[in-house]
Amino acid sequence: MYKIDSLDRKILSILSENARIPFKDIAMECGVSRAAIHQRVQRLLDEDVLMGSGFDVNPKSIGYSTCTYVGITLERGSMYKSVVERLQQIPEIVECHFTTGSYTMLVKLYAKDNEQLMQLLNGQLQSIPGVVSTETLISLEQSIHRDIRVELEEP
To answer: Has residue 1 been placed in a domain?
Structure first.
């Protein structure tokens, strides 16, 4: 596993505030060369410390007004991988987690309206072999959305 040092933490902290900041500005703030920043960022990407570099699309702007979390209970936990393969074929599902607690899995999906949500639940999710039950939680509002804070000192 890649060991993050203080320069990496400083770079991550800066990027978490503004992912579009030019490398020259990061270099100036860190007191190193632009080439050093480029190499560090590339290593952080290669080591999966940094994930992604794109923009987030607002689902509502393209017609997906309903954000839903679905708790899924499986017949057996060992069926997880085969169920995930089927879930990956449903483009409205944007996250999937293997969990502890009341559900075997928790998925986040977006639907255009309640009719599409019902079709996703009844017509697709509940018909996957191994899915015993689902519980649907509709998000009324997202109050907080942020990345994990990068502390400059190692905890």
So the answer is: no
* Domain boundaries, position 35: 6-46
111: left (phi over 0), alpha (psi -120 to 50) or beta: beta
Backbone angles phi, psi at 66, to 5 degrees: -115, 115
Q: Are 137 and 103 in contact (CB under 8 A)?
A: no
Query: Which pTM does this prediction carry?
Result: 0.82
CA distance 120 to 117: 5
d(CA 115, CA 121): 10
Give the total number of structural domains in the chain. Answer: 2
Residue 23 structure tokens = 């490398």
Query: Which residue type sits at 107?
Result: V
CA dihedral of 86, 87, 90, 91, whole degrees rounded to 10: -130
For tokens 């839903």, the residue is 68
pLDDT in tens, 68-88: 999 999 999 899 999 999 999
